[in-house]
Amino acid sequence: MSKRGIVLYLHVHQPYRVRNYSVFDTATDHDYFDDTANKQVFEKVADKSYRPMNALLQKLLDKHPDFRLSLSITGPFIEQATQWAPDVIASFKKLVSSGRVEIVAETYNHSLAFFYSRSEFEYQVKLHQDKIREVFGVETSVFRNTELAYNDKLAKWAEDYGFRGILAEGWDPILQWRSPNQVYRPVGTKNISLLLKNYKLSDDVAFRFSDRDWNDWPLNADTYNDWVGMSADGHSIVNLFMDYETFGEHQWHDTGIFDFYENFVGKWLGAPDNTFYTVSGAIDEFSPVSEISMPNTVTWADTERDLTAWTGNSMQQEALRYIYAMEDDILRTNDVQLIADWRKLQTSDNFYYMCTKWFADGDVHAYFSPYDSPYDAFLYYLNVIRDLRWRLHQNHHTGGLNG
Amino acid sequence: MLGWELPPHNSGGLGVACYNMSKALALEGAVINFVVPYQAEHTGIDFMTVHGATPLSPLERYNLGAYDIYNGRDNSGLGDMRAVQQRYKKFVEKLMKTIKPDVIHCHDWLTVEAGVRAKEITGAPLVVHVHATEFDRSGNSRGGNQLVHEIEYNGLMMADRIVAVSDITKNIITSKYKIPADKIEVVHNAINLAELNDGYKYDETTYKYLEALKSEGYTVVSTITRLTIQKGLFHFIRAAARACEKYNKLVFLLAGDGEQRDELVKLAADLGIADRVFFTGFVRGKQWRDAYSVSDIFVMSSVSEPFGLTALEAAHYGNALIITKQSGVGEVLNNIFRYDFWQEDVLANQIIGIATSDALRESLQRNVHNEYSKLSWNDVAQSCSRVYGLVQKGIVV
Predict the structure, then answer these.
(1) Which end of chain B is more exposed for a tag (fewer CB within 10 A), N or C?
(2) A375 at the B interface (CB within 8 A)?
(3) Model-level pTM?
(4) Which chain A residues touch B348 with a CB distance below 8 Å?
(5) How far is A42 from chain B (nearest CA, A)?
(6) What was the ipTM of the complex prediction?
(7) Which residues contact A366 (CB under 8 A, 6 or more apart)?
C-alpha cells in the first residue's frame, strides 16, 4: 500500500524587464533591458525569498528523509542569479544534489511560444533542458508550460517529445465530480501522466495566507495539516503547486510563512502514512485512474483560468504578432546577440504588463508591474520591436521597417 | 453659494463646476442663493436663485476672469478687479440681511473675502472651495501676487472646512499655506454627460484642412486651453518638434487664446514646425466641441492644474489622453499616459507611440471613455453635503 503524499511543486522565475525604452532610443541604442533595476529586484527577492526559503528547504531535507519537492527554474532566472547572486544558484544546486529535489522542464524563456510557433517552442524546451543539465547535472522528464497553460494538444506534444508527465490546473469545470488528488491520463495519450493542481489548498498558502479579511486567518500549521489530511483522505496525492516567491515575497517573512511551512511539513510527516513525492515519484507510484480532456487552454491564472491577462487585449495581440512574425528573419541572421534579445522579449511577463483588465475595473492594485501603466509597457515594447526591425534591416538586410 | 461665473457667461471650468455642483445639490434638496459679480440672464437655471452683485455686464467682467493673473493695478475704477470684489462683498453683506444661510460656500480667492464677511454677519459656517490657488495661476514659478496670497491665506484660515478639487491642490494648501490636512476634504470634479449628449453632431467642415490631413494618415494632437504660463505650452511645442523629428504625420492643434500666443507662434517657427501647429484663437460652442472631435490625442501639459475638466471632455469626444503628473484630473483616471510637465522627450515618445499603433490608440480611447463617464456630479454633491454636515454638527472648531 502506497503512502499518501504531498506533491510540492514551486515555480522559480524572474523576468528581464524592458527599460523605459523611448522612440529616441530606437535605431540608436540596442540595450533594451534595465540591468540596474533588474539587479535591484533580483537582489531584493533573493534576500526576502530565495535565500531564506532555500535555507528552510535544505533544513527540511536534512531533517526529514521523506521530504521531497519539485522546482521549475526558468532560463532568465538562472542567468540573472548566475550574474548577480551566485550563492543562490549554489544553494539550489545543493538542494538538487540531495536527490530528492526534481527539476521540471519548461520553455527556457518562460514564453507563450507553444501558442505562436511550435518550432520556437520546441527549441526553447530543448534550450532549457540543456541549461538544467549544464547547471544542475540532471535530466528532466516532466513538463510544465508557462502559467500552466495546458490543453490536449500540448499533452500530445509532450508525450511525443518523450516526457512522462505534465502539470495542469485542477479546475472544477473540467474535473466536475473528480478529485484533483489522483493521477490522470491526458485524452489521446498512452505514456504520459497528468498531475492537477489542488488549487484550493495551494491558494490557501499562496494567496490567502496573510489576508486578514479571510475567515480562516490566521492559518496555523495544525489546521492546514488537517485540511490537507481531509483532502487526501481516500486518495493518493495532494498537488500543491505555487510560485516559489510565495515564500518571503508574496507572503512576507513577518506573516510567519516560513515558520508555518516548517511546522506544517513536520506535522504532515509526523503521521506514518504520510510522505512527500516529487512529480516523477508520484507518477512512478500511481497509475492514472482515468482520462481527462481539456480541448481549450486552461491556466492557473485569475478566476477565469485562461490567458486573457497575457493575450486578452489588442495591444498584447499586436505585440505577440510582431515578435513572432520576426522569427524566420531573426533566426536566419545567426546573430547571437540579436537572437538572445528576441528570446528575452518573448518572456510572458512582457505581455502581462500590458494587461488592462484590472485597469478597466479600477482595481489597479490587483496587478504588479514595473511600469506606470499597461500603455507604457506596450509603448516601450513597441519601440524595442522597431529597433529589432531596424537591426534586421541595417545589419542583415532582411525585413522591412514598416512602422 | 458665492461664485464668480455661471454658464453661459463663463470663461472656463470654474463656472461649469459651480453650475453642475449647484444643480446636483439642489436635486438633493438644498436651497441655493448663488451670487455672481455681474448682471445677466441665466436661462435654464431654475433650480436656484442667481443674484447679480454689480451692474456690470458679463463681457465687461471677462477681463476680470477667474483665471486671469491679478496684475495688482488698483486704480479704483469699477472695471478694476479689487473694486468689483468690494462691490461684490457689499452686495453679500446686504443679502445676508434678507437670507439666513445654514452654510456659506465660496469659490476661490475671488469671493472668499465676501465669504468671510458673510460668516462674520450670520455666524454660519464657511466652506472654502479651492479650484485653483495663486501658485497654480502663476505657473508655480514666481509664486504670483502677494496680495492674492494674503486673501487666500486669510480665507483658508477663516474657513470651517476646505474643499480641494484634487490631492495636488490639497498638497499645495498644506505645504504652501500651512493649513492642517485634516481641515481639507478632497472632492474631485466630475462631468455632466446629459449636457454633452444634447444632440451635438460633429461637423467635419469646421476643421476641414485637418480632416484632409487625417485622411492622408496624419494624427491630430490637440490641447484646448488658455495660452498662459500655467499650461506648460512651451514644453508642449518643444515636445511637438521632437516628435516631428521621428515621425512626420503629426499635426498639433492649439485651441484657445491667451497672453502667450505670440510667443508660442514664434517658438513653433523657430523650431521649424510652424506649418504643423494650428492656432485657432478663442473657441466657443460648436467650434470648441469640434476641436475635441477632430482631435485624436488630447494633451494636458499644465505645470500646475488643480483639476482639468477639459481632459474629461476630451475623453468624451473620443481622445486618447496624455496628462502631466501635475494635473489633478489624472488622480481619477487610470487609462491615460502621464508625464512630468518638463519631460518633453517622454511626451514626444507617447505621442508617436499612439500615432503609430492603432492598438494603443484604440485601447486608450476606449478604456478612458469607459472610465470618465463614471464620474458623477451627484457624487460631488453628496461629498459636499457630507462636508456641510460636518460643518454644521460643529465637529470642526
Answers:
(1) C
(2) yes
(3) 0.89
(4) 23-24
(5) 27
(6) 0.84
(7) A358
